[in-house]
Design goal:
This protein has about 290 residues and is of the alpha+beta class. It is built from 10 helices and 14 strands. It has a 5-stranded antiparallel sheet with strand order 1-4-5-8-11. Strands 3-2-12-6-7 form a 5-stranded mixed sheet. A hairpin with a 4-residue loop joins strand 4 and strand 5.
């Protein structure tokens, strides 16, 4: 279900009806020293319109970017990505440029003081949004961006990352298909399915559970494209309706196969990774040492 955020309106900071709840703020996974006075931020109101429900909801909170400026003023210029961690185990990564491109609100209450919930079309029920609910000014986003940058709820931790999370893959050494699979997995899968100690813990780890080996490529691709058809009880959303969505799903499978056995991938694709070069140099050095012995 899509919520279109119609406008942001700045309200006097004197109108805070309640103190913002606790928010853990990290820099590269380490909790920052010293408290951040979130109540010092200007209040923002936002009206959200749901086309399917034909209703609008009002939320209140503060600007994400303004929060970042007071939380890590000296390190903000180095931030590449934002990791948002939710109480339900969900963990998503967004590029910092998205927050610089369009306004995002860290909401923590309804404007009318009512229950801080909204209806989920995917889960078919009301969901609790507390402690924080991230909402975007959707008018500034393209249709593709709206499909990628969702409104995240139950946020408890914001992690500012100054290094790119590449899931252990040197993107310069793999072909375009693996790059597409890595990007797709990071954007649409990693939030629930952890990989290389990164990501959420809502659902299974595909590598640890050997999902592709047990279920097969076709099953995985069909599940990614239409999860409800494969498993009517799933809460997993489908891959967005991009023109190349099937190719993206296929690339995710190739990416996971690569993560399982990178050596086989490099051999099959005739690519020499840094690891192989290191092994070759090590062998050459050992042979030279052996010849040099009296």
């Amino acid at each position: 279900m899509k919520w279109i955020f119609l406008f942001f309106a700045v309200v006097s900071s004197q109108l805070w009806a309640q103190t913002p709840p606790k928010l853990e703020i990290q820099l590269d996974g380490q909790v920052i020293a010293g408290p951040v006075n979130l109540a010092s931020l200007p209040v923002l109101d936002v009206e959200a319109y749901s086309a399917p429900l034909k209703t609008s909801e009002g939320y209140r909170g503060f600007s994400f970017l303004e929060m970042a400026r007071i939380a890590i003023p000296q390190d903000l210029a180095r931030v590449l990505e934002i990791q948002l961690q939710s109480e339900n185990g969900y963990s998503v990564y967004y590029p910092m440029e998205m927050f610089q491109k369009t306004q995002a609100l860290m909401a923590f209450t309804r404007k009318d003081g009512g229950p801080f919930v909204r209806y989920s079309g995917l889960q078919k029920q009301l969901i609790t949004l507390a402690p924080y609910y991230l909402v975007w000014n959707a008018r500034a986003l393209s249709p593709n961006e709206q499909a990628i940058y969702n409104h995240i709820y139950k946020i408890k931790t914001v992690n500012f990352i100054t290094r790119a999370v590449n899931l252990g893959v040197n993107l310069q050494e793999v072909d375009a298909n693996i790059q597409l699979g890595q990007r797709t997995y990071k954007q649409f899968c990693l939030s629930c399915h952890a990989l290389q100690s990164e990501g959420g813990k809502v659902s299974i780890n595909f590598l640890e559970n050997k999902t592709i080996a047990l279920k097969g490529r076709d099953y995985f691709v069909k599940y990614a494209l239409d999860p409800a058809k494969v498993n009517p009880r799933t809460a997993m959303p489908e891959l967005p309706q991009f023109k190349n969505r099937e190719g993206m799903a296929q690339a995710v499978v190739d990416f996971l196969l690569f993560m399982e056995k990178p050596e086989a991938f490099y051999k099959d694709k005739k690519i020499t990774p840094l690891q192989e070069r290191y092994k070759k140099l090590t062998r050459m050095l050992q042979e030279a040492r052996a010849k040099a012995k009296p």
